[in-house]
Amino acid sequence: MATYPPQRQGHGYRGGHDDKPAHKPLDTAKIQLKDIKADLFDVIARETAETIADNRNSNKPTQLRRFYEEIVMWESKASQHPDKFDEYLPFIRMINAKAAYALGRKLVDDNYVKLINDGLQQVDSLKTLRHFKLFMEAFMGFYKEKRPKD
């Protein structure tokens, strides 16, 4: 009699790539870019960095830095040409697709993709783009503090 692998619907199955992540899910509810709170670039950025840094199998600082640098580049372009912000916005939001690609290659995890996605969803003006860039700058500082050897 042949034996078959356990079914995925059962509560005892632990194999395969469809399982829930072993790391704590990121809560982005406090990351508000329109009306920023005093602790956005401090407490909230630190908590976010700590959650994402906990996954030692992914999220290498070099990879995260690439996303940050692209956000900085778009904020710089938009600051120099504020009249072209609406023209730039689709390309700014395309960072979501790049994050999804990096997730597919296991270069980042689902928490980092959620951070990028939820942040970019709020970007609708030069002001919110600037706030997102500053949040990511603070995040990167705290992230490097948490994982200095990577």
Task: Summarize the structure in words.
By secondary structure, this protein is mainly alpha-helical. The protein is built from six helices and no strands. Helix 2 packs antiparallel against helix 6. The N terminus is likely disordered.
Summarize the structure.
With 150 residues, this protein is an all-alpha fold. The N terminus is likely disordered.
What is the fold's blueprint, element by element?
Blueprint: H1 40-53, H2 61-80, H3 85-93, H4 95-104, H5 110-122, H6 126-146
What structural class is derived from the secondary structure elements? Answer: mainly alpha
Sum up the overall morphology in one term. Answer: globular
Count of strand segments: 0
Average pLDDT, rounded to a whole number, is 87
Q: Write down the Rg.
A: 18 Å
| Residues in β-strands, percent | under 5%
The biggest beta sheet is recorded as:
none
Gap from first CA to last CA: 50 Å
- By DSSP (H or I, 4+ residues per run), the number of helices equals 6
Task: Pick out the low-confidence regions.
Answer: 1-20
Give the ordered list of helices and strands: HHHHHH
Considering DSSP H and I runs of 4 or more, what fraction of the residues is helical?
Answer: 55-70%
